[in-house]
Amino acid sequence: MADDSRYYQVGQRPREVVLHPAGDEPLRRHRVPFTRRHLVKWRSRANPKSLRHERRLSDKRPLWWVLGLGALLIATPFLSNSMITIAAIFCMFAAINVLWTLVIGTAGIFSLATLAIVGIGGYAAAGLNVWIALPWPLMFVVGGLAGLIVGGFLALPSTRLDGLYYALLTMGFAEICRVFVVQLKVLGPTNGSINSVGSFIPRDWFLQRPGLLMGFGGAFILLLLSLLVFRIVNSERLGMRLQTAREEVGGEAFAEAVGIDYRQARLYVFLITSGCLGVIGAFYAMFYMSISPSIFSLDQLLLLFAMIVIGGLGRSEGAVIGTAIVVLIDKGMLELGPLRILLIAAIMLGVTLWTDNGIAGIRDQFRTYRNRKKSEARARRTEKGGEVMPEEAIEFTDKQEVYYRRFQKRLRDHLKTLITDDLIEQHRKAPLGKHSDALNRVLNYFRRGEMADKYAIMRQPDGFHKYKVVAFSGERGAPPRLVDDKTYEDINDAYHAVFLLRVNDLLES
Amino acid sequence: MDILGTLIHGLNLAAIYGLMAIGISILWSSIGMINMAHGATFAVSGYAAWLASSAMKPVIAAAFGKTLMAKFAMAGVTVGAGVTAGAMFGAIIYLLAFLPIHDKPNYPVRSLIVTLAINLATVQLLLWYFGPRSRGLPKLFGFGKFEVLGIPIRYDQAGAIISTAVILGLVLLWLKVSRKGLEIRAMMQNPEGAVLSGISVRWTALPVTMLTGALAGLAAILLSQTIFVSPTSGALPLIKGLTIALLGGLGSVPGAVAGAVIIGFLEATVGALPFLGQRYVLFAQFLFIITVLIIRPRGLGGLLDETRE
Amino acid sequence: MTRAFTPPISKSPRMPDVLAISGLTAGYGPLRVLHEIDFRVAEGERVGLVGLNGHGKTTLFRAVAHMTGWQSGSIKLNDTEIGGTRSTGPGRRTSAIVRKGMAMTPQGDAIFPGLTVRQHLDCGAYSKLAWRERRQRRDMVMDIFPPLRSLQDALVGKLSGGERRMVSVGRALMVDASLYLIDEPSLGLAPKISASVIEALFSLPTDGRAMVIAEQNVALLSGRVDRMIGMHAGRIRGDVGHVGLE
Question: Three-state DSSP class for C101?
């Protein structure tokens, strides 16, 4: 081959970064301290084509997380005051939504009481801080405990009620909380809100730039912690157990059958989440230095629901993306007025009508769609399914047989196109000897035929130049059978007769 | 405490909540949609009725003067506009929340989200266009009260109770005996079997959404005799309707009727009790519903829900 | 060795075709189940469609009703084209096709469990005429399936398997369809009951209509249908024509 031949990168992802470590280099993998987990998922393999050792990142999501959150962390200090507040609110709501995703996605409990738990945690912490002067670090503990208790109370009916029933019930619970708080006599003068709550932000820094930055820092840490909780609960033992029960049809029955107590696992997830939400509630009260009954309101809940719906139910990245979109529209475009909510509703509508699982699921949805279309098109144009029915295919122990049959079918289809009157004429003239390429192919196929029903020529005992065509039985000891009574005087005629018989069989198959 | 008055008040509330709850229940049982936009339908119908009545007021006054006919015409215009607007809004819900997604996976959750979005958008649009001020509708049944067996009944209470009973009776009868009703029930039980019986799922769902929308419109008109029309006036009836539909067992119409009566009386009783009062009404209702649901997770008559599967 | 496919000969060449399928290919997702099927049913015919499980009998019926994942090819019902390449989801056009004169009994008990027998039968009377005459038609169905007469107000979900099959088949008979597709009437039934269901099917008059019965149990059909057609691996294999009624 000439030297100027060009090589093309082939494959699905020619631009993917692939490391080529030296083959004799020892494998060094860093583990997260105190665990057996690795930070990123490197996978090595020997490429059979290039014969090189290569190592690639099989899950790139950690990279995106680090890039996104890192950009947020670095960019925020340079933003305006209002943007810092928006960033802090984003972090706080993202933390709530990540935990909510844990309840809806991992545990499969369609709970709408998330904000109610946050609110109760916040009220408990704020109330104790204001009335018995609880120091602010302990407020987190109080908030968490309050969340845990409310979560325990709410978890009771969760295993008994069906999804939508439970959702509406918890929505009612939020409404009860709001009414209850508004009607508390103690809070009457302030319309149900608790003000001047102690905070980790020093009082004279509140709403000043350093105070805002502190608030953002706290919210960011909160988001990181909730992502950690998500990771630990969702992808470790508890989440793995629940994964079985998540199947749409019969998942729960199956989980029970293999001995997984999915109800208990769901309860644990719900309790853990509730505790964490209570902590976020305490943070919420400290962040605003007050807490008001609007946190229980239906509108706020709907806004939060819009966030996880737009991002995609059940995925942490979905929760964060959705929160970013909705918070940017709701808090960042204040000049739009009521149009903001319309915009959010329109996005929600579009996402639900066209995507299966929010924005985070678009990639998967597109791949599924493409694969489905591809396989449908393949099924339309190929006939290989016709040779072996799927039911038959699973009965074969030797899968080679499936492919053998499909190959034979393709081969026969091809050979059928080769058979013409000219070809037959050519064989009639010279059954043996030099043949054209097409005839050679056909004859080669005939020669490789199976023994059963294979034709042969038998010399008759009553004359030297008398031949008859027979077909082998294919079984040892069973004699061949006569195909017809015709006797051929010339061996070439007999050859040709056999050829014609085989051509006939080929065309009929 | 005035027991009989409470009874009438309870019936009045039961009638209005029942209209909402039955709409939600029918929609769930026939096309599997939890309609969160029912409250928006309520508000839209209220505004439509208000617009129509204030637009027609001079016309009617010119045509009939201050006769009884004028009252009838006014009532006709108000009710007609409200019910029509409700039905039209039901058709919009059908176009957005049923037609594009009805054969996609996870339809109940999807439609719930879509109707939530519709609700959100509609309430904001109303707020934007009409402002937060509430509007009063003309009194259909006039002011005043009459006495039956010594119980004083206000005209609007009597009107609400009687018209609800009549209309619900007609709707339920229609669902029971008519061919459309049979088709709706067939569709809710087995969509595949329904299409094999020549029932088009897409064309059968439209009258259902329009019917439930019209019911919500009627409820809006009736409730607006006692409260005012405002953009957010649909939220409370929606929550009440939903919880009653839950209590009755989603999809069960008799259950919804029973639930509406129970909740109506509960509200009237708790509101009338001196040591509890109006502020604990919601509380008492939710406690009651939670208790019932924990004892009977499928509600009072939630059998149809199982037959759906 | 399989024989080459010969187009089926209808019982009487003068009779028009009720169903004429040509080049029908259908499947679900990546699976191609039917391969270029050509198939005709003439008016007044009873055709038995036999073949093993998973060889495309049900899919053939579902393709006529447009309930497969995807399909292409021509399907003519009473000379009206109802086939063609379809891109919408399954079941969207089914009700329109049913109204053109196809009555199909799906495999198993795909019926309405919460309706009474009477309501269930009424569901089948979708045309205006049939709805007006639904009482007479119900009586006709009850004559064919006498056990249903005493069960008119019972919920279908509470009936036994055989009774449910009778209701399911009876629903298809409530309207004057020109083509009846009966899928596995004997599936899951005791032999005695399935024989009686089949018996009832054969007692129907065949003037102006055609019937295709898919069945695994050849013995139930043999000698009683006008033609027997075998399906193998998504293709039509063999056509035993002119099996006269005894």
Answer: coil
